[in-house]
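Figure S7 source data.
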Amino acid sequence: MKRRFLGSQGLEVSAIGLGCMGMTIQYGELDDIESVEAIHHALDNDLNLLNTADAYGNGKNEVLINTAIKDRRSDVILNTKFGQVTNSDGRGGVNGKPSYVREACEASLSRLGTDYIDIFSQHRVDPDVPIEETVGEMGRLIAEGKVRYIGLSEASSETIQRAHREVSITCVETEYSLWTRDVEENILPTCLELGISLMPYAPIGRGFLSGEIKNIDDLNENDRRRDHPRFSSSNIAENYRKVQVLKEISFSLGFKPAQIAIAWVLSQSDQIVPIPGTKHRKFIDENIRATDIALSDKDLIDLNKIFPVGETSGDRYPSAQMSKLGL
Ligand SMILES: NC(=O)c1ccc[n+]([C@@H]2O[C@H](COP(=O)([O-])OP(=O)(O)OC[C@H]3O[C@@H](n4cnc5c(N)ncnc54)[C@H](OP(=O)(O)O)[C@@H]3O)[C@@H](O)[C@H]2O)c1
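Tokens for the predicted NAP complex:
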């Protein structure tokens, strides 16, 4: 398994991580036993970066990871996130207050069954708390040995710069894939300049770039992608036209579209470590093989042409969640 450095502080990880969110929320049927086996399979194959969050199933995802890694903590680079909360009115909110940062860290440590978190990230920026105060407290957690490195998620270029002036940021987790390329304008250049790694989430476009989802009926009734504008009936049809071309290119190169989608993200910079999500061992194998794909300049030009920046049909989140991005 190839390796890449995450950030500029010497942390080496597998070239792709494993996104664990779908093991407890969002995508179709759940199977804890299969998910734990998938995590073991990833670790057995030297894929050592696991990505989770306290918000994934109200802590359930972290508890699942605890079950999977309890006898092999030292094999894992563990990345969890805090800050997406449920307010007393039942609506989603964010909390970046220093006292909450500490409280969330202690709760994650307990659920994960560990006394240190390798990478502790803020899930969404809190517009009511200066970023310096939030990352300042995260820095104190590093000093206390509870956290090794820190990250941000879906932060603006300005916030990344301000945060990094306060405490060294190791990675920024943000959606980036063939059909979500807006980070190329500001976020990615900022990260590259500051020596921060970009950790693209949803590099397979929440599964859409696998070519397996042709219409809304391919998603279970309880699948949360049904709430995402890009997966509405009319937008799926429009977006699937592009995926058909991706499929043709991928098969002509001898790979599956999901693998080419991952290889495309990896090819954008060595400072990129994507975290494709799956709960299946066979997809882990396929995704690991994608790290060995060398796309030619022509392949990249062809792929870029299918998915021009900003031309995907539909927003990438429902409207209430869109307002929490890029702060
Ligand atoms: N920071 C944030 O705000 C944020 C937001 C969303 C996600 N994330 C993190 O990023 C991770 C990845 O994102 P994501 O899971 O939303 O989207 P993704 O990685 O683009 O796609 C995941 C979907 O693709 C399917 N898949 C994976 N490998 C495949 C393959 N080789 N062939 C065909 N299908 C394949 C999975 O199927 P199965 O599920 O059936 O295995 C799943 O439905 C998450 O797990 C989470 O940890 C972070």
